[in-house]
């Protein structure tokens, strides 16, 4: 315990000492030790940090931006997924089901705004029915036992605005206020001794004596950098345990871990998803989440309600390339929602919501999916990679944590603790 406290106070002293200095040092940057370091304060990093702290570890969360949850965790549909679409026995299926259960319980116990509003997956033509049946079978196979196949007449009673020929009802799907969730995770992590270091970017690392040494820089010192040129480290930190939960940066960061076998690091791909909101209507036209059948790279331009009852449509899928590492670390993505994209939205949405009037879609926000398979390639599972895979002591990489990562966050944390903490 004393040792741990010492490590922590020396980290803080080092922070003052070195991050205060104006000229960044490269080689010969000061070295410090730490117990458990979590890279990234998104919903996954916060969940893992909290779980580690509650397991008695001395946790430091390193976050490049000035606040928590500024990445994908605040740019998503905020849907608690049931666990329907994912291949049998995949981590996505397992973590989604377990995460859903943990999340409903967590939110209920802490009065975090959430609602089990249910969801309909709709087939809008007879030709789509086999696909709908396949989704139903897959969901049942994954253990989503409450799924129901329902006829059009029942859909009309439940959702008068929705046009379809058949639908799957998923009663356990819901919505959650992700900001309140993260605030709660953060508070509990901190009350168990976690230190969060904002404005602190991990720029790379190297393996020495089979341990990963992290190269760290104050974010401010990087902001004037352009491109991918050498990113200077101001501090080298050697933790006993490192969780790379850097979201969109997890892969580019691992590519900068010198000495880590690069054959086990996947390629990174980025796919933007834009949302359009439904202009103020007197009463929301839907009671539940409404999803068309999945499209490549996403799960279709669906209807999401937030807890205030306002409606958004999205996300679509737009592959983007030419992302450099620094842009990624500093979250300098292009999140602009081009109003022109609404043309495609109108067409897709009217297949199941024919009463959508012209001019009623307004640009909302966008998020970017941390993909590890590209356009036209089969989607891949989450990757949770520890010493058993790459041989580096104490390093756990989390790659490809796209949807259902929000739903899965507590289950990912549970898994990391049970598998990698001795
Ligand atoms: C459009 C869209 C819709 C989605 N909808 C849903 C949904 O409805 N339900 C669901 O369950 N999931 C959904 N998801 C998935 C979910 O949002 C993500 O899986 C989840 O938010 C990932 O959390 P994270 O903590 O891994 O990543 P992030 O939230 O991105 O957090 C990573 C953090 O790491 C920090 N960071 C990055 N690089 C560095 C560095 N070098 N050094 C230090 N810090 C760094 C970032 O600043 C960021 O804060 C959706 C995703 C998208 C894109
Ligand atoms: C992070 O940096 C920003 C901009 O430099 C600054 O305004 C903010 O106070 C910093 N936050 C923390 C927690 O240090
Ligand atoms: C609901 O509306 C309030 C006030 O407009 C806003 O502050 C809040 O963020 C909204 N909540 C959600 C979940 O969108």
Q: Any ligands, ions or cofactors bound here, and which?
A: flavin-adenine dinucleotide, 2-acetamido-2-deoxy-beta-D-glucopyranose
Proportion of helical residues:
25-40%
Tell me the fraction of residues in β-strands, as a range. 25-35%
CA-based gyration radius: 22 Å
What is the CATH C-level name of the largest domain?
Alpha Beta
- The tally of helices reads 11
State the CATH superfamily name of the largest domain: FAD/NAD(P)-binding domain
* Overall pLDDT score: 92
Using the alpha-carbon principal axes, give the shape.
Answer: globular
What structural category do the secondary elements indicate? alpha/beta
Biggest sheet: strands, sense, closure? Answer: 9 strands, mixed
Catalytic activity: (S)-2-hydroxyglutarate + A = 2-oxoglutarate + AH2
InterPro entries: FAD-dep_OxRdtase, FAD/NAD-bd_sf
EC number: 1.1.99.2
Cofactor: FAD
What does the secondary structure layout of this molecule look like, with pairings?
Blueprint: H1 2-19, E1 31-39, H2 43-54, E2 59-62, E3 79-80, H3 91-110, E4 114-115, E5 119-123, H4 129-141, E6 148-151, H5 152-158, E7 166-170, E8 174-176, H6 178-191, E9 195-197, E10 200-208, E11 211-218, E12 235-244, H7 250-255, E13 257-258, E14 269-278, E15 289-291, E16 302-305, E17 311-314, E18 318-320, H8 325-329, H9 342-350, E19 361-371, E20 383-385, H10 387-390, E21 395-399, H11 405-420
Parallel strand pairs: 1-2, 1-12, 2-9, 5-15, 10-13, 12-21
Antiparallel strand pairs: 3-8, 4-8, 5-7, 6-7, 10-11, 11-12, 14-17, 14-18, 14-19, 16-17, 20-21
Helix pairs in contact: 2-6, 2-11, 3-11
The protein binds flavin-adenine dinucleotide and 2-acetamido-2-deoxy-beta-D-glucopyranose (2 copies).
